[in-house]
Queue: 4 jobs
Job 1
Amino acid sequence: MPVDITIGMCAYNEADNIERSIRSVYEQKTDFKIKNVIVVSSGSMDGTDDIVRDLMQTFPSLRLIRQETRMGKNSAMNLILENNRSEIITIINADTVLLDENAIANLIAPFDDDSVGIVGGRPIPVNDRNTLAGFASNMMWVMHHHISLITPKIGELIAFRDIGVRLPMDSQSDEDILKMALMKNGYKAAYAPGARISIKGPETVDDFMKQRVRVNIGQIYMTKNHQFMQPAWHKRFLIPAIFNTVWDLGFHPIMISHSILLELRARSAAKKHVAEQKKDIHTWDPVGSTKRL
């Protein structure tokens, strides 16, 4: 078990969420030390920075690094990496909240195995399953869970060994790049389903499509540029995940069919974007409905 860890948060205009996110970190029960919590605020203009500064009076290990202009998550991640002094780094998005007091302990536990280099937690959407977009978000993350039980799919809540990796500024695929670099250095990835974090998926179909098209663009570029396998694109992982997801969510043929069609449309649009030799999207236009956790 590592002696201490650093927790990093990337934030852009997260005044509605960041206090809950930070407090959920300091409510964690661990038998190791959370050395620092570093918030990188990238061009925030909604009071995010003031909230963090106020919380710094309560939590002395909390630190704010401000970027005057928004340069994308990879830029913010590189600042966290450059200011890290711990063996293990955990990354939490500022619009998410750790679901219980053991989330970080569960996330870090796999590092007892020296061969583990990166660990992913389990995102849990708070969206209403009775709406089309809400069901699609829940279905997607339940499928990710079942895929990760077979082959770890890293995202949303991660921890990794700091081996000096820096992220390219022209890419959005931060977690995949970290996973690829660590695996090339002989480490393996692990999944910690007990490390649960609440997230907000898109509330409208338009927002769902907007988000999924961009995510799929990043995944296609990872495959194209790095020959890096994307588990969610392989039938041998997808087919059992679909069956297990239906078991978990119940049989809702209309909702399930519609959710699958949305994802297929998103993948088609992403393939068209890449085929037209358009660039990866490293700085996202925020999906507004995902910011009301």
Job 2
Amino acid sequence: MGHTLILPALAATAAMLGATAARAAVPPAATLFETSCANLAGSAGAGALSGAKTRLSAEPGQPVFCELSGVLSPAPGSRIGVVYRLPLEWNGKLVGFGGGGWAGDVRLQTALPALAKGYAVMQTDGGHPGADGADASWSVLSKGRPNEAALTDFIWRAVHETAVQGKAVARTFYGRPQTRAYFQGCSTGGRMGLTEVQRFPDDFDGVIAGAPVLDLVVQTSALMRTQFFHKDPQSNLTPEQLPVVNQAVLASCDKLDGAADGIVADPTACRWDPAALQCKAGETGASCLTPKQVATVRNAYRGYTTRDGRVAAWPLMRGGELDWLTRSVGNPRMPLGSNALTGSRGIQYLVYADPDYDLNQWDPEKDLAAVRGGAFAKQYEAIEADIRPFLRKGGKLILWHGGYDPGPSPLGTLAYYNAVRQATGAAADTGVRLFMAPGVYHCGGGPGPDRFDMLSALDAWVETGTPPASVVATRSDGKLSRPLCPYPEQARYGGGDMALAESFRCRP
């Protein structure tokens, strides 16, 4: 794999270890690595960690690595849980990972792909324990009293402090500093990545921000979509109607990119009107929509813009209707859908510090300005477009977004990308790229190919200075692949097997 063993004490050991043996178990010749791992918790590099502990992991089929965990408390009330995973075969580089929903992410499952490539991995719980991304209760001390220290940790301090400490840990453990440091995240992790780019441009050499929850319009969109579908009980759709709507959209717009593949490659070019499915006189059932249901679907596609021109709800994308079941229509476990469970909860807890706030009373014409202009928004939103300090030092930013995402809108990410290009001019040409992933839901899933190695694409860009011309994406079933193209290019069918990426070309 071309990885270099950096730990000086392991130089002789390295020659004795084959890659296969290193991944299967720690043989006797690697006891120096084990000893160094055991001593790491008490070293100067781990000095800021309280409750530091280490363990050696040598599970079959996994890379051998040393794990250091503990808590950082850089300010009164701050409690940042961190986990550092340091592979035996280090490639000299670090990568940090972001969380999801209202939580961080310290899971080994997240770290394993990067560990297998030789990266040392830095992870944080975002300033509060627990992996439930729908749980925002940690942000409120009592009704009307926000937990300021925990909010600051989650908004920006946790990732920054984890990175600073992680560099010291790696330098101590391996005997030299990292050559590169990257960050990768989706959803909340995407916002964390943008926050790093905007606030701490020296922390990372490259950042991947997928489907970023970059501003509170994500939460107000979730809240308003809950109202679209549920404020009037007769307006909600049934689960059986969603495939009917989806098939009508595909019949109208699937072939716009030249390929009848079950994916609307550019939903913004689709103009299908749900009135085409309105029930005729005497017609009922799942095959048609009532007038109120037609209005619901239109509202979903239209979104909501206030009278003074502010977006309160981004439109949902035509083609992604099958994912509305979980997000908007709801089910017995989540009657109002995950929009209310996760997105709207951010308004209740983090903005108003009021778990009992009635979501149906929220009025965008009266309340949006206060939400976007409040103290929480000023800390939380990662919307600064002038990222020239990050770009001037050679930083690279990759944005990506699923084309069907029913959570944070691809239109929001596109708006931010355009704002960055306007604010930074020519610097964006050498340091910023946006990739849309057609047919993909929020951070994955959907009919489109959602598996791709953006970290390798970023690393190659940083090392060579040549931006990725495309990134090949596959679907988990292996039956579909596509090139993801740098915006504004799109993959266009050029003939051949529609299931294969080589049948498509990135074109303006």
Job 3
Amino acid sequence: MEDKLSVMVVDDTETNIDILLDTLGDEYDVRVATDGKVALNYIYEDHPDLILLDIMMPVMDGYEVCRILKSEEKTSHIPIIFLTAMSEDNDEQKGLLLGAVDYITKPFNPSLVKVRVNNQLQLKYQQDQLKKQNEILIENSKLKEDIERISQHDLKSPLNGIMNYPLLIQKEGNISDTQNSFLNKILESGRKMLNMINLSLDLYKMEQGTYNLKVTDINVLSVIYNILGEYSLWLKSRKLEIIITLNDQELKENDEFIIAGEELLFYSMLANLFKNAAEATDRGAQVLLKLSSNSSREIEIHNPGVIPEEIRETFFEKYSTSGKDHGTGLGTYSARLIAETLGGSISYTSSEDEGTSIKLLFQK
């Protein structure tokens, strides 16, 4: 048998208490207090589901009892219905401003009392259920994040093992230059994968605002060349032309483009944005990387494609994707997180006539 819901009646008049006991006693567990201070002690101990509170009482009136209960976290959620013989609008307004949910006027109408009590208890039940569901969702979300972090952490062990074998083979010797080159490529790919795992762990810290940025001067041109080297075969297969300019001029052999930050963060951010731009570019077309240095450092990645209308407003938000069978919607989201962590900003323009430009802005 389910426990009855509890109703606390606070009234200094015995006749009123008797009427409410008769009206509510069969359906609810009714508890009684005839004094505001005594009522507070009972409420702190038992936490009733609802309180029927008289306004006019000696020592401590109902307004003060209500104010105290609503000011404390452990009791603020308990619905309070005032019992009053007053009829002035300002008295009702005062109680509602203090946090009461309803008024019942004297003399009591038993049917009306039952309806109003039942309505408020039903509403409280629904609110409690929503609160529980929200707590479950928060806990599930936290659990998912914990599992992701643990999984990412556990990936490091087998990856470190994979990376050790090329070193052992090279140490043994008796391999050709071609074989040695292949082993170095395996090592380099392993290091980059390890860096990506570390970055995925760092993205969580960025979301929480707890990432510890280690700033050094980074030659972003060198990072861009590494990215293009990684994608060279894929770019060649698509016959894409990559044009890089510095202050609207063709690059010279010793050009540099220095921005303070972390190399891995720049690599991940620019690799994501460049890959998106290249995927949105038709075969044989151009992807333009424009680097500008004036009062600030600006990186612009332009392609002739257009961002789908349905994701333009959410382009830099988590899981925003369109038209990609295997897209996660995390690329531009992580790029925004990284740009902001590096102290910069990111924006875009996109139209059928002008194509799409992603712009990154950093201070010198």
Job 4
Amino acid sequence: MRSALVCGAGGFIGGHLVKRLKSEGFWVRGVDMKNHEYAVSEADDFVIGDLRDPYFCRHVIDRRFDEVYQLAADMGGAGFVFVGKNDADIMHNSGMINLNLLDVCCKRLIPRVFYSSSACMYPAYNQMDPDSPNCEESSAYPAEPDSEYGWEKLFSERLYLAFARCRGIEVRIARYHNIFGPEGTWDGGREKAPAALCRKIAMTPNGRTIDIWGDGKQTRSFLYVSECVEGTVRLMRSSFEGPVNIGSDEMVTIDQLADCIMVIAGKKLEKRHIPGPLGVRGRNSDNRLIEKKLGWRPEQPLSVGLAATYEWIENQVSARIGKNAFPQAAE
């Protein structure tokens, strides 16, 4: 039986990846600092612990797994990444995890390791125009990420590539672009835009007002989690090292994102634009390289994934505060 290790299995993408690997007949060990908040893990063995601890890292990588997926990181949406106060933790915690993991994987002769980087590592100067951002893989240098989170991702990309060159371990690197879907963080400060807007719209009575950070004209693309997992597995088993974008190229403004969710919810709400952490002005996945190297690119329309996500978050809101008891959305 093939075996896989998923680091960050208690998180959003990691939880979905475990399900995919189990459906393929893998024996799966999941690792995280916490259990999954919204689902019971399907992993055969789920280990709670801190990958920043080199002893723990050696403990969980105690065999030669066929595939190791490294998704563990200290991360969140704009309200976590761009406020400044979390920068030291983000860089220290994620950096320690990757340093420990690579060291142990080399000693255990792990054949191949997948690393989840982020589109946040792309230069801010190429993402000032909301209508034509440049996120082609080759545009990464000269480097100027818009956050310390992006700088850590860029450092870790180079760390994995250096280990591949110098230690003989095979790596696969993907740059994720705004992954969303059910069973992801939807409140508490670490949620990303689709989940935050689904929550606000679910909690707000028809005809009322929701708050949106910025002028609403900033652009992004959002990839549904099942397509993220598909791209991840395809890259892992390909001959292409990466880095490569895994994201949608269906770019929308944040206002358009909110409007789409309102249509799904059957609500008409006013949008009030307020100051808040924003990141770059525009971002969109460039999918030419992944199509060339893997013969695949994400194709599911944004509205399809949003419908499934809104339904799940609406159920979470209802379960928490009681049906038909929707207070005004939080500021």
